[in-house]
């Protein structure tokens, strides 16, 4: 990452199961936007305990300090709150998830690819621990239960204590599945955010704070461009280690932060080796990664009938993904592989439901529907073209018009 010159600088269906599958396709724009937004964003501050008196530092020096941070051992507690402003689906999401579990062969409530999406909404408390690149553990604490994901050498374990179910895979099996490596700490979110720093960005140091009992500098990242839904990102950086302790993303529309992630307790000592030990409890159902669907067809299972908007078609469309604009106003566009969503009277009951979740828009491109969160918005046109970005509705309509 290039250095900064100052404190404000920039750098370079039918059967019930079939119906659920079909409905799931149309809920994807809403659900996926939420997960994507969680990968981008961060937090309103946890309560600070005064402003410590630390040596002056420039934005360039603080960025460099983050880049040089080599913390590999830690344990602590992280609180994460996500407020994307997603519409209330009245339990539809839970119903779809249950339906997917019923359809899957060898499905498991301990499967990380399903469980970790919970972090995309609401407030959660996590216990985290790390001992180098080969040992990490993240536990989502629940009422009288918890879900843990443990990486110990070659093994990856997931354990749902409430259901007494276990997932087991290996690093090789999990390597291509990013859900096994979720952003769980302020450092993870900060890395993603700092990738967006370029000449469309303002970066400053905005004083100091105390987080989890540690003195920290506050780095503030803001878009210079208009049209972005991002207001500002604030990263509290540990004075001693250079590791981000808290990350806050607030939207340009104002109000509470979109996501709040920060340590409430942290210890940079080496965790006990037993922290990463795991043996399936007696009576637990153990499911191997190879037994799970993960969106793949089961060997020997008849190929299902494909609709025009099948998963294969969608994948082909994503292969042709293009990015319009630059910096914070970047918009991803791709062909969803079929006609637009069935909104309005022509779509029947489902169309009316989907229409209530989005805003109908018109332009030179024709008509479409914009699905919005407080951070990420998506426009899907009548011909099935999607425009997605952390930009306003007007910016999406403009991009679609220019695309014609």
Task: Tag the structure with descriptive keywords.
12-stranded mixed β-sheet; TATA-Binding Protein; 404 residues; globular; 18 strands; alpha+beta; 9 helices; 6-stranded antiparallel β-sheet; outer membrane lipoprotein receptor (LolB), chain A; disordered N terminus; single chain; 2 domains; 23% helix
How many domains? The number is 2
The coarse overall form would be globular
Largest sheet, strands/sense/barrel? 12 strands, mixed
Strand order of the largest sheet: 7-8-9-10-11-1-2-3-4-5-6-12
Specify the helix fraction band: 10-25%
Q: How would you name the CATH homologous superfamily of the largest domain? A: Lipoprotein localisation LolA/LolB/LppX
CATH architecture group name of the largest domain: Clam
Can you describe what's shown?
By secondary structure, this protein is an alpha+beta fold. It has 2 domains: 16-291, outer membrane lipoprotein receptor (LolB), chain A (Clam), CATH 2.50.20.10; 311-403, TATA-Binding Protein (2-Layer Sandwich), CATH 3.30.310. Helix content is 23%, strand content 32%. It is built from 9 helices and 18 strands. It has a 12-stranded mixed β-sheet. It has a 6-stranded antiparallel β-sheet with strand order 13-14-18-17-16-15, sandwiched between helices. Strand 9 (230-238) and strand 10 (244-251) form a beta hairpin.
